[in-house]
Design brief:
36-stranded mixed beta sheet; 5 helices; mainly beta
Length: about 900
């Protein structure tokens, strides 16, 4: 295989050096350079569009062509007559200038070939067919080949270094714009154009008064013939692994018409192809954004989900999943749009993990710990959303959304510790939430614009925890402190919790447009929040009865009944003005805060007033090059679980008691970003530097009995600091695309263990280099190398881990009917003493379809061909450094039949 990679790289390199360059300038009739003019070269022998280019701000263009060939050059620009000319290349570069004439009629020259990339204002349009070579199957495969567009390993889309916030199909939201569902499910053969919408605003009335520079949406234009017809594909497959049967059923169906659209996605398999993970579920916003997101107030309602072990890279020892999703939109008339979606996911996951845990400062007597765990997870996740948008005219818009979430999850874990012994843990929860959103936008006239945004959240969480500890001797001190009955075969402890949250977030905005270059914004808003928290620790006895223990510490409190109220009433003022290349927006918000929590008959109140400044400055160097400086001061408030005084079992070895007198934290955040995208040579540069300082941050005061931690929160007098820098450089060289990116994160905080204070410093470095080809007629290869350094300095304990991962991907379209794809990666996990472990992954697929229009495709697909059974990673917490070995599913080979509608 190494020889094959070498040959492919050699061919790609020799191909690029065999080309010659055609450069020049495009001007109008009076000699003014034309920016964003389109230049294409059509090979006269093959009649194929071989190269294309777009002029820069000085009118310059560049084409890479084969030597000793004849080409038709077409030069076009909006409002100008298209120019055609035949040129013959030899073995030297050519300089050629063009002058275009004004045209008041239709183009006299018919453009047989569409430009691969065109620019219309803030919209960048890619002609998808210009970048396909036949190996693509889903939208993500197409997007990866577009200059300036990246698709992450998680399926998220980035354009010119910025995350895409919304994906639409023919102007209609695709599952509220979720990019992962789009990239992994929309068939590539349905894609005609990819429209990148920069400076995107969902509310046209606010486009001129809000900063949308970092908002990017993508609209997928479907091919002709896909409208008013069902399209998509249905995949079925089976296989065998370790004498167990494998199955796969994946229907993906779509229907679009001018009035309505329907999308249906299904997935049923036991081969580890997870269509929708728990992380996707909890990150899926449903399009909801807090009205107060820019106010400077950050109130955390907490995360009371189960302590689920997370999958690494969507791998586990065994995974079976059932997934179904449906999305619709309906426009009964031009002024009204109704849409919605439903998502359901059922996943059963088996995980096995070994950990070596090194705790901070060995002088404190906390022993190192080796653990093994076997875990079975069951997860039922559901979401349902309905939306309506009414826009009777350009001056009025009313939006309403309601989103419901329901889930039922459980985790059963067999856990062995070298210190505590065997423990059987069981957790389950059935939470739900209802989120409603009402927005109204009104434009009085060109100078006065109003916006009302109201959001309400109702949430109910009920996690249950149970742990059975077999080694009573090693848990005896903790059990005595908790007041447990010791006359039992094992310690069987449990806890019920209930957290109810009710929050309203509302604001009213008024913009006064002072001139074409300045406006002022006044914001009046409020956040009203109530949380109720109940918890109880109890013990199951051998005879099946329930015992209510009384702890010997924390004033004997092991139950909670806490009522927490929070309110914020604020007024914000922001002035924005433009001067040349500068857009400057200073502002501030004034807040009247009130907090009150009631527990055990006592009331704790805090009322105060605070001014939070913010500042933004953007320097627009060119159309696609800018520098952005942002500063924001924020106030951070905690949730009710940190305030409740009674004991809580976060885990059998982690006991927690809240602090009713916690204060808020304040943070200062500075961010500087540089961005440049040059269509002349397809160079994409992105750099970001940020710094955050958090004052009065909530930290934990911890005490350890062996490896069992008891902690309580307080406001630390030591500030937490975070600094990060990252950047990416990407450029195309003919048929080669190279990219380099790197990042450094530094995190400094103080920890408090056994009445001792130490300063922790964590450094994380990430680097990645990538080289890939973009051929249409010959196979393509992608080479990459990733390197990570994780350096943790925790008091007297320091650990450094290194992870290096070279990888290669190869795809070929053979004889116009066979598609071969394979990828290979090698990972070396080491510390300063040498290699801890290394592992390899190799996947491959071979598919056949008679031609690109064939309805049936046959595919043989293999994952983990080398049958690698585990992988490694490292992580840090505020008290320990952890190195993990994580077991994964074995080699799977499946045969699949794909039917295309």
């Amino acid at each position: 295989m190494k020889k094959l990679l070498f040959v492919m790289l050699l061919l790609a390199t020799s191909y690029s050096f065999a080309q010659i360059k055609v450069e020049g300038v495009v001007k109008d009739s009076i000699g003014t350079p034309l920016e964003l003019a389109n230049v294409i070269a059509i090979n006269q022998e093959s009649n194929i569009l071989e190269s294309f280019g777009t002029t820069n701000d000085k009118g310059r263009f560049k084409l890479n062509l084969k030597a000793n060939s004849k080409y038709k050059i077409q030069v076009s620009y909006i409002g100008m007559k298209t120019h055609e000319e035949i040129i013959s290349t030899q073995e030297v570069d050519i300089t050629k200038n063009f002058s275009l004439q004004m045209d008041n009629t239709l183009d006299e020259v018919e453009l047989i070939y569409e430009m691969p990339v065109t620019v219309k204002g803030d919209t960048l349009i890619y002609n998808a067919d210009s970048f396909k070579n036949g190996t693509e199957r889903k939208l993500g495969d197409v997007l990866k080949k577009l200059p300036g567009v990246e698709v992450t390993d998680e399926g998220e889309i980035e354009v010119e270094g910025k995350k895409v916030s919304k994906v639409m199909v023919d102007g209609k939201d695709f599952f509220d714009g979720d990019s992962k569902l789009a990239t992994k499910n929309i068939p590539s053969n349905a894609v005609d154009k990819v429209q990148v919408l920069k400076n995107y605003s969902e509310v046209g009335q606010l486009r001129g008064v809000t900063d949308n520079q970092d908002n990017i949406a993508i609209n997928i234009k479907l091919k002709e013939g896909k409208e008013n017809f069902w399209f998509g594909d249905i995949t079925g497959g089976s296989g065998v692994a370790n004498d167990e049967g494998l199955y796969l059923v994946q229907p993906k169906l779509f229907y679009y018409s001018p009035k309505y659209s329907i999308n249906v996605i299904g997935d049923l398999n036991n081969i580890g192809e997870v269509a929708f993970t728990r992380r996707d579920y909890f990150n899926f916003s449903g399009g909801f954004r807090m009205p107060s997101r820019q106010s400077g107030t950050n109130i955390n309602l907490g995360n009371n989900n189960l302590g689920f072990l997370a999958m690494q890279n969507n791998r586990a020892k065994a995974i079976s999943t059932k997934f179904g999703a449906a999305n619709f939109s309906y426009s009964p008339k031009k002024s009204l749009d109704i849409s919605g979606f439903a998502i359901f996911s059922n996943t059963k996951t088996e995980l096995q993990e070994n950990n070596f845990v090194q705790y901070t400062n060995p002088e404190l007597g906390i022993p190192d710990e080796v653990t093994q765990s076997n875990t079975m997870q069951r997860s039922d996740l559901g979401m349902l959303k309905l939306s309506a948008r009414y826009k009777p005219n350009v001056n009025n818009q009313l939006d309403y959304d309601i989103l419901g979430r329901m889930s039922k999850e459980s985790q059963d874990q067999l856990f062995n510790s070298s210190v505590i012994g065997n423990t059987n843990q069981f957790e389950e929860t059935s939470p739900y939430s209802i989120n409603q959103n009402l927005n109204y936008y009104y434009t009085l006239n060109d100078k006065n614009i109003f916006a009302l945004e109201v959001q309400h959240l109702l949430q109910d969480e009920d996690p249950f925890y149970n742990a059975i500890l077999e080694d009573k001797e090693n848990y005896e001190n903790t059990a005595n402190a908790l007041g447990m009955n010791a006359d039992q075969l094992v310690y069987d402890i449990a806890q019920d919790k209930r957290i109810k949250s009710n929050q309203m977030d509302a604001k009213l905005d008024y913009w006064n447009v002072l001139s074409q270059r300045s406006d002022i914004n006044f914001t009046f808003g409020t956040i009203l929040s109530n949380q109720k928290f109940d918890s109880e620790i109890f013990q199951f006895l051998d005879d099946g009865s329930v015992f209510d223990p009384t702890p010997t510490f924390n004033d004997g409190l092991d139950t909670n009944n806490t009522d927490y109220n929070f309110s914020d009433i604020y007024l914000g003022v922001h002035y924005r003005f433009k001067r040349g290349k500068f857009t400057i927006s200073p502002g501030f918000s004034t807040h009247a805060y009130s907090t009150k929590n009631v527990q055990y008959g006592d009331t704790y109140k805090d009322n105060f007033f605070r001014v939070l400044p913010d500042f933004n400055m953007r320097i627009q160097l060119k159309k696609s090059e800018n520098i952005n400086l942002n500063y924001r001061m924020q106030t951070q408030f905690t949730d009710v679980t940190n305030l409740a005084k009674g004991l809580v079992l976060n885990n059998y070895n982690s006991i927690f008691a809240g602090n009713e007198a916690l204060d808020n934290a304040v943070s200062h955040n500075v961010n500087l970003t540089y961005f440049s995208f040059n269509m002349f040579n397809y160079t994409n540069v992105f750099a970001n530097v940020s710094y955050s300082k958090r004052i009065d941050q909530i930290r934990s005061l911890s005490n350890f009995e062996s490896v069992i931690r008891t902690s309580s929160p307080f406001n630390s007098s030591f500030a937490d600091e975070t600094a990060s820098a990252n950047g990416r450089f990407q450029r195309r060289f003919g048929k080669l695309q190279a990219s380099v990116n790197g990042g450094l994160t530094y995190f400094k905080f103080a920890q408090f263990i056994q009445s001792q204070t130490s300063v922790n410093e964590n450094y994380t470095q990430n680097y990645r280099a990538e080289l890939r080809t973009n051929f249409r007629e010959v196979p393509n290869v992608e080479l990459s190398y990733a390197y990570t350094i994780q350096d943790s300095d925790q008091g007297d304990t320091r650990a450094k881990f290194y992870t290096s991962t070279p990888s290669v991907e190869f795809d070929a379209y053979i004889w116009k009917c066979i598609t071969f794809r394979t990828d290979f990666s090698y990972t070396n996990f080491s510390n300063e003493d040498g290699t801890i472990n290394d592992y390899k992954f190799w996947n491959a697929s071979l598919s056949y379809r008679k031609n690109q229009d064939a309805k049936l495709e046959y595919e043989l697909k293999a994952t983990n061909l080398l049958d690698t059974r585990s992988q490694n990673e490292s992580s840090t917490s505020d008290t320990s450094i952890r190195a993990s070995e994580y077991y994964i599913q074995p080699r799977y080979v499946t045969f699949r039949l794909i039917y295309t509608l």
